[in-house]
């Protein structure tokens, strides 16, 4: 019986296997087991950038000469890796700076006012800049940035007590002010006498801004939106640029094809994390006084320049009306105009 039934059992087994194969769809999108994850093969350029990034600390002394032959996007990618490896300083970012850059992310780095000012002088086309968690940047550096980069639209700041303090002091640079109206005519006023810079600035990302300060600034300067929020229905999402969205890194697209182990290299000992201050009041008093003096001096610089021009114009006018030589020159000029009119 067992020998007679064995062929029948074999046929039944083959039929069941055939039916199971027929019901198996190799191209089915509903079967996660059969789906093979497609991984993008990194380009040769990305592999080379990764090698440079892993050995960046050894290349920093000669980085200026090495980077001269690199295109702008490669320099930006190297700067992004340096920032992630905590190697981004004034020396490194200046060596990599390119005049065609439109985006700059130096967040959580050791770049100072000197480096930021030099970058602003070299990269006049910057549209979006992230200086959040930069402890060495003061309102003086922000002033130079907005003065030298007329295309700046997005500024990301704050994130630590010192950076929050800098952002708070820098808001005055963007408010429209007209402190002195002693000019001879309204035609003599220009944009620099109404604002201190940043005429193209439209977006500021500062997560920890005081609500009262946010309300006051929004009423005084409605053209600049602080911490813009996209509509949950997607109505105004297209109007807000990616650079102004919260919780992003400006340089993420530059390193998306590079192996993350590049900036997880153990070649440089990790820095001891600094415990964040509980409030801006823990900034040393001497440093607060220095920052306040720098901010006041920066804020009054355009007014001093305007007053100097007014004094010069008034002195020239007084000289033409009181001195003999000035009267002679004025009469001669009038006579020349009259003769030209007759001719």
Automatic annotation (TrEMBL):
One of the GO biological process terms: SCF-dependent proteasomal ubiquitin-dependent protein catabolic process
| Region of interest called Disordered, as start-end residue ranges on this chain | 302-321
Q: Which InterPro entries match?
A: Leu-rich_rpt_Cys-con_subtyp, LRR_dom_sf
Q: Where is the composition biased (Basic residues)?
A: 302-312
Gene Ontology, cellular component aspect? SCF ubiquitin ligase complex
Membrane spanning stretches = none
Q: What is this protein called?
A: RNI-like superfamily protein
- Native source species: Saponaria officinalis
Taxonomic lineage of the native organism: Eukaryota, Viridiplantae, Streptophyta, Embryophyta, Tracheophyta
């Amino acid at each position: 019986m067992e020998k007679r039934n064995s062929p029948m059992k074999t046929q039944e087994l083959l039929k069941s296997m055939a039916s199971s194969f027929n019901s198996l769809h190799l191209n089915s999108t509903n079967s996660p087991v059969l789906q093979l994850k497609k991984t993008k093969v990194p380009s040769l350029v990305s592999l080379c950038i990764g090698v440079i990034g892993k050995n960046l600390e050894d290349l920093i002394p000669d980085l200026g000469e090495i980077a001269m032959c690199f295109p702008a996007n490669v320099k930006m990618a190297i700067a992004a890796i340096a920032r992630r490896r905590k190697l981004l300083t004034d020396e490194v970012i200046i060596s990599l700076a390119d005049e065609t850059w439109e985006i700059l992310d130096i967040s959580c780095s050791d770049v100072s006012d000197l480096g930021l000012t030099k970058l602003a002088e070299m990269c006049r086309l910057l549209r979006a800049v992230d200086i959040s968690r930069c402890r060495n940047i003061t309102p003086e550096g922000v002033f130079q940035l907005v003065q030298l980069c007329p295309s700046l639209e997005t500024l990301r700041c704050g994130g630590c007590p010192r950076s929050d303090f800098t952002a708070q002091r820098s808001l005055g640079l963007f408010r429209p002010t007209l402190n002195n109206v002693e000019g001879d005519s309204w035609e003599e006023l220009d944009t620099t006498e109404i604002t201190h810079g940043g005429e193209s600035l439209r977006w500021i990302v500062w997560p920890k801004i005081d609500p009262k300060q946010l309300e006051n600034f929004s009423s005084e300067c409605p053209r600049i939106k602080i911490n813009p929020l996209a509509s949950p229905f997607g109505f105004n999402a297209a109007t807000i640029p990616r650079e102004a969205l919260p919780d992003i890194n400006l340089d993420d697209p530059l390193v998306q094809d590079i192996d993350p182990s590049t900036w997880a290299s153990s070649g440089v000992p990790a820095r001891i994390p600094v415990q964040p201050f509980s409030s801006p009041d823990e900034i040393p008093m001497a440093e607060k006084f220095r920052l306040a003096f720098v901010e006041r001096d920066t804020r009054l610089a355009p007014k001093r320049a305007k007053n100097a021009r007014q004094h010069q114009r008034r002195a020239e006018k007084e000289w033409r009306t009181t001195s003999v030589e000035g009267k002679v020159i004025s009469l001669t000029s009038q006579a020349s105009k009259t003769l030209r009119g007759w001719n």
